[in-house]
Structures are given as structure tokens and as C-alpha cells.
Amino acid sequence: AEAAELRERLGSVKHTVLVLSGKGGVGKSTFSALLAHGLAADEAKQVALLDIDICGPSIPKMMGLEGEQVHQSGSGWSPVYVEENLGVMSVGFLLSSPDDAVIWRGPKKNGLIKQFLRDVDWGEIDYLIVDTPPGTSDEHLSIVQYLSATHIDGAVIITTPQEVSLQDVRKEINFCHKVKLPIIGVVENMSGFICPKCKNESQIFPPTTGGAEKMCQNLNVSLLGKVPLDPQIGKSCDKGQSFLCEAPESPATLSYRNIIQRIQEYCDQQHFQEEKII
């Protein structure tokens, strides 16, 4: 009955993409926010961003929606909209203050994730982006289990170049294989820094073991792209603005646009193959 309920609610979602990382602080929420902005740049597409990082909900701040609240309608909770074609849902909208700590055990977190999927009136959606917390535990198992009632296109895994980060990302890739979650590819964040004045590139986080590129070759996973560091990314996130619009000529923006295009092509290919099977 529960699966049927979820299937009915999420039946109008065309593509679902999970954004994962083994380690915190690698830019996963930033990537989720910019992926949503990039996809929603096409006004013909309806995009939804679901934040299931229950203890660290940073999406409201990054999307410029701090202080907004969720409204209840006859058909369920209404997402908070950034644009007409970009809706957001996060536990951050349910807290009385952004500084409130969410001190919950696993079952309560899982219950809220299920509620987000079952009770939010998403409407017809082309892309549902799910921003997850770091790791491979409760929230990840829950979202994969609940979404298995419908369809997940796959996961995008975020890392930084150094071995400390790659070590945890290998675990995340292993998790995806174990729960049969397709991997769209890996994004290497903070991949070098291009000086805005002299245009020289510096490796802030040296890839001592070959970085994400070498890891992807070893594990037979696609590398979607490398995003260089740009101080403007942090500033844009703090102001709740889209970095892609704020700095259209930045090398990081060009890299993001290429990665977003590759994710779209993957999802379209998946959709095409499914229609062929049907």
C-alpha cells in the first residue's frame, strides 16, 4: 500500500537524480543547487530540488529562500518556489530558526523523508534533484528504498581531488553497487584554482593518488567533469543567488554547464531505452 501511494504521488516525475558524497564539505549541496538552477534555465522544464540533509539543511540559504515556510493545501504540502519552474522542499522550512539543531534518531528522519515524497504536491516534474547528507546510512537507504517504488535515473557522486576524499567516495560507489543504484558519474569539485589576474592554475588540493580521473578509470565509472575553485561560488551561495548567472564567463560555470548537459543526455538516454522496452 505504501509503495502504491508513493508510486501514485511520484508517477508524474520524469527523471530522478540523487546527489551523493562519501564525505561532508566537498560541495554536494552547492552542486545540487547549481544543477537545479542549470536545468531550470530551460523554462519549458519543471525542476524540483528535495533536500534530505535533515541535520544540515543548507539548500534554503543557497536558493535564497531562508525564512520561507511550507504551506499546506488540499493536495498536500506546497514546495517553496524560486522561479515558476523551480520548487524546493527542505526541513529548513519547518524550523523556527535557521540556528535550530535537528536532534533526531533514524526512524524520525526516515519518517520525514517518506513524508516529503508522499505528501508534497510536486505536480508534473521533469527533474527531481535529491540532495543527500554525507555517508551511506539511514537517509540513503531510505531514499533508495522509497524511490524504488518508482524510478531513479541514477546518482551523481561529488568528490574533491585529495585521497582523503576519494577514500570515502569509493565507499559511496560500493554502496551504489550494493543497492543497485545506477551511477551517472563522478564530479571532481575544487579541482585546481585559476587566478583571475594572471590566469595561472594552482592545485589547492593536490591529487596525490591521481584524483577522481584515476579513481574512475580503476572503478570503471564515468568522470562527468572537473569544477575549478572560484571564490564567487561561495559568495553566490551565501547570497542565495545562482553562480551560473552571476559569473557566466567563469571557467567553473563552463565546467558546470558541460556537466549538466552530460547529466541531461544520460537521463534522456535512459528515458529513450525505457520507452523502447515498453
From TrEMBL:
Mind telling me which PROSITE patterns this protein's record contains?
MRP (PS01215)
Top-rank taxon of the source lineage equals Eukaryota
Q: Which GO terms describe its cellular component?
A: cytosol; nucleus
Q: What would you give as a GO molecular function for this chain, any one?
A: ATP-dependent FeS chaperone activity
Q: Where in the cell is it found?
A: Cytoplasm; Nucleus
Q: Pfam families this protein is in?
A: ParA
Iron in keyword set = yes
Q: Does the keyword Iron apply?
A: yes
Q: Name one GO biological process term.
A: iron-sulfur cluster assembly
Question: What UniProt keywords are attached to this protein's entry?
Answer: 4Fe-4S, ATP-binding, Cytoplasm, Iron, Iron-sulfur, Metal-binding, Nucleotide-binding
Role played: Component of the cytosolic iron-sulfur (Fe/S) protein assembly (CIA) machinery. Required for maturation of extramitochondrial Fe-S proteins. The NUBP1-NUBP2 heterotetramer forms a Fe-S scaffold complex, mediating the de novo assembly of an Fe-S cluster and its transfer to target apoproteins. Implicated in the regulation of centrosome duplication. Negatively regulates cilium formation and structure.
Q: Which HAMAP family match?
A: Mrp_NBP35
Q: What is this protein called?
A: NUBP1 factor
Q: From what organism does this protein derive?
A: Balaeniceps rex
